[in-house]
Amino acid sequence: MSGSDEKGIETGTEPDRDLSARLKRLDTQIEQKRISAALTHSSRAGSSAGPSSLGRAMQFSTEFTGAVIAGGILGWIFDRFLGTKPWGMLVLLMLGFAAGVYSVIRASGFGGPHSEPDDRKES
Helix or strand or coil: residue 119? Predict the structure, then answer.
């Protein structure tokens, strides 16, 4: 045989050269797949980690503030049309506050129907 390439495969005959070329192509393809898999994995790692602490804090504050404002606006409208000033606004503002607290507790996972674990066995 005439010689060997860097992997130690004899390259003197035609079948050996063909095998060497196929091995080099396979190495190249494997390396390309590794690079694309690493890029795909790194791009998914950030998105699958879930919301950040700042994002969750913004969600909680928005839900709470929205519920209180909605209760106040509905109370003001209720008082305006029915002439029950200030009782409608006070009652609905307190209901908005309670709804906001409940929403934050439910979203944080400390209570509510979505935070309880499901003990049923799937079959």
Answer: coil
Vertex 31 angle, CA 25 and 34, to 5°: 140
* pLDDT score at 109: 86
Q: What is the dihedral of CA 17, 23, 27, 32, to 10 degrees?
A: 90
The average pLDDT across 96-112 equals 90
Report how far residue 36's alpha carbon sits from residue 105's, in angstroms, rounded to the nearest whole number.
Answer: 41
Angle at alpha carbon of residue 80, lines to 77 and 86, rounded to 5°:
95
86-99: b (≥16 Cβ within 10 Å) or e: eebbebbbebbeeb
Report residue 89: phi and psi, to 5°.
Answer: -70, -40
What is the pTM for the complete model shown?
A: 0.52
Distance between CA atoms of 122 and 69, rounded to whole angstroms?
42
Q: What is the DSSP string of 64-109?
A: HHHHHHHHHHHHHHHHHHH--TTHHHHHHHHHHHHHHHHHHHHHHT
Q: Answer yes or no: is pLDDT of 117 > 50.
A: no
Write out the two tokens for 7: 């992997």
pLDDT at 50 over 70: yes
